[in-house]
C-alpha cells in the first residue's frame, strides 16, 4: 500500500496535507497497521483538514483544542454513529501525538479530550437452520456455483474475516491435515482447522472449477471472479447479498462470521477457543457473542448447574 492514496483524498496543496501524508507513511512503515485501518485514518484526517481549511487554518500550529471539539460537534449534528465519531477521534488523537513527538506541533491539543464510547451492538446472526439453507443454495454443477459454495463453506468453517478469506492462496490450505493458514489483523498468523465438509468442497473447487475460471492467467489468490482475476470484497459482498435475498434475509459477509461464533458457543465451545479461532486480540470482543437466547441459557443452566433439578436427577 502506498501513501499516494492520500493525494486522492486531500486534493489541495498546503502544509496540513504534507503533515497527514507523513503520518500515513509512519502508520504504514513503522506501525504496520491493517490496510483498512490506515485507509479509514487517512479519510478521517483529510475530512478534518477540509474543515480546518474552511477556517483558513492551513498550518499545524494554527489548529487549537476548540477546533477538534467543534469538528466532532459538526459530525455529531450530521447524525454520524458513535462508532464513527470514536474512530475519527482516534485518528485525530494519534495524529496529534505523532506531530508532537516529531516536534512539529508545539503541544498535543488532543489531550484530555474524551473519546465517544460506541454502544455495544449485538451482531446480526443467522440460525443454524438458516445457515444450512444458505450453504445449500450454490449450484456446484457450474464453475461459479462451485466457487460460491467453497467460499461460503470455508468462511463458515473457519470464521474468517472477508480480507482473510480473499487473500488466501492454494498454498495456505493444508489438504492433508485439514488446516488453513491466514494472516489476520496486525499481520498475526492463525492456523485454523477446516471441517471435512468444507475441505471436500475446496478440493472439488480446486480440481474442477478454479482451472476453468483462471483462463490461463497467473493469479495466486484462491478465489477468482469470472474473468480469472482475484475476487474483490465488493464482489463477495454482492454474492452473499444475492444468496441472502433468495432466503429473504438481509445478510452480509460478516453475518456469516458472527453466526460461526454464536453457533460454536451455543453448542458448548469454550470462549477462549472461539477467541483464538476468530483472531480476537481481546476476549471482550468475543464476549459479544454470548448473547444467547434465554431458552439456550436455560438449557445450559439445567444441564450444568449443580443445584438445578435436572442436574440433580441426572446425578441420581
Account of the protein in words:
It is built from 15 helices and 3 strands. It is mainly alpha-helical and about 325 residues long. Strands 1-2-3 form a 3-stranded antiparallel sheet, with no helix packed on it. A hairpin with a 5-residue loop joins β2 and β3 (about 190-195). The radius of gyration is 24 Å and the shape is globular.
Q: Just give the CATH class of the largest domain.
A: Mainly Alpha
Report on the biggest sheet: 3 strands, antiparallel
Helix content class: 55-70%
| Mean model confidence by pLDDT | 83
The SSE string, one letter per element, is HHHHHHHHEEEHHHHHHH
Indicate the overall shape: globular
Highlighted features:
mainly alpha, hpI Integrase, Chain A, 15 helices, 316 residues, 2 domains, DNA polymerase, domain 1, globular
Short structural description:
This protein has a 3-stranded antiparallel sheet, with no helix packed on it.
Summarize the topology:
Blueprint: H1 5-9, H2 15-31, H3 35-54, H4 65-77, H5 82-101, H6 128-136, H7 143-158, H8 162-166, E1 173-174, E2 179-183, E3 189-193, H9 196-214, H10 233-246, H11 253-266, H12 271-278, H13 283-286, H14 294-304, H15 309-315
Antiparallel strand pairs: 1-2, 2-3
Helix pairs in contact: 2-3, 3-5, 4-5, 7-9, 7-11
